[in-house]
């Protein structure tokens, strides 16, 4: 009975998770390694990868710094009234409930060419929709709860005694943060950053809507995969997808390795 | 913050010894404490520095611009022409068929996940077998993969070019561009949810309860249904709700494998994308409002459930 269940589960995992991944390997390698190399070295895929990289860099940096600031305020802020804290918590979670396509639609509705804000920024010479700023905004919208959700429980469990001790011993807020707070939240921050980066690389729906998917201008790696598979250029699509899949697996393994560190650190006190 | 000026002044003088040179260059002094009347008592509040004011405004402003305003914009756009166009946009045959199809298939996906997710979680926690740790890390793969890549994977696997696809075709089974394909895509995308909410509950479960049931003469099936299952049901419900809301929202994978036939295999998110491409933002916003409202209700239900039962997801 027991072995039957194990067999069923293993079968399920192989069918649902392993088989599709092998499918992509087979699809990319159908015409040999040279074809994969050629597909990745096309000017449009190089450009798409570069755009993806820039977006990931900006988004991860932004979410990292602001995420730490916000989590500290949300957990510790003495100014938050009793009703405000749960409200802020709920607002932070909202992006999880929003479909990525709707996330893109929101940016277009706010900053599109025929809206008030959009026209203003266009006049100043700063294009938001169908350009990099809009794509970054869409990605930030989708990813910004990740960092805060990772940090808030850690900060809550940590408590404030160590920081208060440091402050009474005469350390300033900056010194207290880097000497006392940072070492204990370090792994949670790295974990949140890795999650954010993974989600930012993979963001598709919102970016597709906002970018307009213009080849060699606003095309990211994921929208390139989409374009190639719609154009029936399956070997090229699978090659780029294989690269993205490998990056995701590396990040997944990295997260798995960090999860243990993070938990050890949390329970060390 | 309403500081009592006179009280602040006098107490400040009484408290702090006047250090020579401090008055000339007060920049180097620590700021005076902030005395406030509250509940008929004089209380000391931490001083509000410009830095703190900046951080607070940043936090509120960021949330307003980045989350509240965009969501409000969708609701505003949907109702921008009044109730009748909103209602007309929703009751257009293609629109409500897309919404209905999405809700129906999401429910099917949730039921499938509740069964296979619970089973997988039990096996992963309770059974020791070769490759268990590897499988346990693999569970999160659908979250880590870009959704477009997931869609392409299924497209390649089930398409006529692949071994499996051609084999299925020989039997006359097609798993692409129909409702089965959409369910397969949804199941792949939402795979981790139920497993990850049920797993900690099984790990926390006290074995003594189960052993007590056995010693009292209960059978394996009876023990499972009466002792174990009630303990993990909250996890199944929370995971199921998350699965449902994720399946409703999914776009990337489904846009590639659903086939996108209006009225037949077009799901709501792909319909919204089509409307945006046709510059019909009002119609797109109307359908978005339905999806958003459903998702918010689900999210709220999950949070209420977690608050009551204290489940950590």
TrEMBL record, chain A:
Localization: Membrane
Subunit structure: The complex is composed of two ATP-binding proteins (CysA), two transmembrane proteins (CysT and CysW) and a solute-binding protein (CysP).
Function of the molecule: Part of the ABC transporter complex CysAWTP (TC 3.A.1.6.1) involved in sulfate/thiosulfate import. Probably responsible for the translocation of the substrate across the membrane.
Transport is among the record's keywords: yes
PANTHER family: SULFATE TRANSPORT SYSTEM PERMEASE PROTEIN, SULFATE TRANSPORT SYSTEM PERMEASE PROTEIN CYSW
Name of the protein this chain belongs to: Sulfate transport system permease protein
Organism of derivation: Brevibacillus fulvus
Key words of the record: Membrane, Sulfate transport, Transmembrane, Transmembrane helix, Transport
Membrane topology of this protein: Multi-pass membrane protein
Superkingdom of source: Bacteria
Pfam families according to UniProt: BPD_transp_1
Any one GO CC term of the record: plasma membrane
């Amino acid at each position: 009975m027991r072995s039957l269940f194990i067999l069923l589960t293993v079968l399920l995992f192989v069918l649902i998770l392993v088989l599709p991944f092998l499918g992509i390997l087979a699809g990319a390698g159908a015409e040999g390694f040279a074809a994969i190399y050629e597909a990745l070295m096309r000017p449009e895929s190089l450009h798409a990868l570069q755009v993806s990289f820039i977006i990931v860099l900006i988004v991860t940096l932004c979410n990292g710094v602001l995420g730490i600031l916000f989590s500290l305020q949300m957990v510790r802020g003495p100014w938050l009234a009793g009703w405000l804290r749960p409200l802020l918590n709920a607002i932070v979670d909202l992006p999880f409930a929003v479909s990525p396509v709707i996330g893109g639609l929101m940016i277009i509705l706010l900053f599109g060419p025929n809206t008030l804000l959009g026209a203003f920024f266009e006049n100043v010479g700063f294009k938001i929709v169908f350009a990099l700023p809009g794509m970054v905004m869409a990605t930030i919208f989708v990813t910004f709860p990740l960092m805060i959700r990772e940090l808030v429980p850690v900060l809550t469990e940590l408590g404030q005694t160590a920081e208060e001790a440091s402050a009474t011993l005469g350390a300033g807020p900056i010194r207290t943060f880097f000497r006392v707070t940072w070492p204990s939240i370090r792994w949670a921050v790295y974990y949140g950053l890795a999650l954010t980066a993974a989600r930012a690389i993979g963001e598709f729906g919102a970016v597709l809507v906002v970018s307009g998917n213009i080849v060699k201008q606003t095309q990211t790696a994921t929208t390139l995969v989409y374009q190639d598979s719609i154009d029936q250029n399956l070997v090229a699509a699978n090659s780029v997808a294989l690269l993205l899949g490998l990056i995701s697996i590396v990040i997944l393994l990295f997260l798995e390795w960090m999860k243990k560190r993070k938990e050890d650190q949390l329970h060390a006190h | 913050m309403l500081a009592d000026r006179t009280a602040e002044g006098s107490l400040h003088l009484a408290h702090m010894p006047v250090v020579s040179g401090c008055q000339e260059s007060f920049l180097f002094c620590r700021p005076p404490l902030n005395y406030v009347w509250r509940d008929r008592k004089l209380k000391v509040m931490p001083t509000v520095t410009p830095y703190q004011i900046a951080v607070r405004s940043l936090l509120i402003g960021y949330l307003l611009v980045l989350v509240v305003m965009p969501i409000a914009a969708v609701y505003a756009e949907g109702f921008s022409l009044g109730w009748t166009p909103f209602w007309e946009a929703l009751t257009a045959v293609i629109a409500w068929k897309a919404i209905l199809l999405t809700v129906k298939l999401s429910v099917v996906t949730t039921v499938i996940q509740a069964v296979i997710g619970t089973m997988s979680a039990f096996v992963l926690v309770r059974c020791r077998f070769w490759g268990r740790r590897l499988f346990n890390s693999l569970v999160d793969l659908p979250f880590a993969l870009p959704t477009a890549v997931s869609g392409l994977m299924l497209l390649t696997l089930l398409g006529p070019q692949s071994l499996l696809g051609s084999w299925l075709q020989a039997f006359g089974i097609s798993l692409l561009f129909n409702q089965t394909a959409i369910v397969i895509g949804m199941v792949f995308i939402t795979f981790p949810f139920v497993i990850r909410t049920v797993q900690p509950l099984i790990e926390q479960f006290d074995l003594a309860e189960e052993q007590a049931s056995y010693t009292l003469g209960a059978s394996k099936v009876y023990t499972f249904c009466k002792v174990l299952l009630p303990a993990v049901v909250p996890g199944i419900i929370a995971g199921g709700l998350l699965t449902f809301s994720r399946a409703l929202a999914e776009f990337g994978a489904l846009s590639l494998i659903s086939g996108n036939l209006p009225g037949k295999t077009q799901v709501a998110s792909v319909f919204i994308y089509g409307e945006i491409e046709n510059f019909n933002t009002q119609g797109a916003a109307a359908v978005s409002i339905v999806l958003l409202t459903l998702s918010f209700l689900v999210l709220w239900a999950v949070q209420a459930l977690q608050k009551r039962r204290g489940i950590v997801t």
